[in-house]
Amino acid sequence: MRGVGFDGDELADGKRLAEDLDIDSTELVEIVVALEQHFDITVDADAEGGFTTVGDLVGCVGRLLSAGSAARG
């Protein structure tokens, strides 16, 4: 993920955002906003509290992209 100071090897699905990557709540919001802008999606604000791992973020983005494709389909 460019722009946040991590390389691909550090961002394995099981990596915990706070404990392993030292991402605080403010940084998480910044990451979510960047993902929203990059993928033209909207992440439910309530969902942000449920992001514990990199995989949680990836899964959320994947679901939103799939839902968007189905809606346009």
From TrEMBL:
The Carrier domain, residue ranges: 1-65
A matching Pfam family: PP-binding
UniProt xrefs under SUPFAM superfamilies: ACP-like
Full protein name: Carrier domain-containing protein
Biological source species: Streptomyces resistomycificus
